[in-house]
Specification:
Blueprint lengths: L5 H18 L4 E6 L4 E6 L7 H15 L3 H6 L5 H8 L10 E6 L2 E9 L3 H14 L7
Antiparallel strand pairs: 1-2, 1-4, 3-4
Length: 138
Amino acid sequence: MATLTLAEAEAILAGARVKMEAMGVKLSVSIVDGRGDLIALARVDGASWRTPYISQGKAVASATWGLSSADMAARWSEPIFPGFMALQGGRFIPSQGALPIYKDGELVGAAGGSGGTPQEDEDAVRAGIEGAGLATEG
């Protein structure tokens, strides 16, 4: 069974930071494992106080279903998603800005961003995941 290591999570954060600096945005990025448990989180100087919570909620949504959080947002009206959000105590935010992380074809977690536009959040985490040599699809 593949797992996401702290070293890989730190590499994702580093790659996401390079991308956010290139875009000129201030984000928080959260990395969670396949259950949605936090592995690493970084909030860059100047990012809003609320962005760590939002980035983690987006990552939890992506990790628990193995989908991008944008795909989750498009399916929000399906009854299972509001129910699952309630089960997660509000730690589940189906909004664009997070991507699943696959290692050797196996879902191992997700990365979520918050602080820019939804597309900027997603672009930053994609850059981090790909820069760490991991995939966003199985």
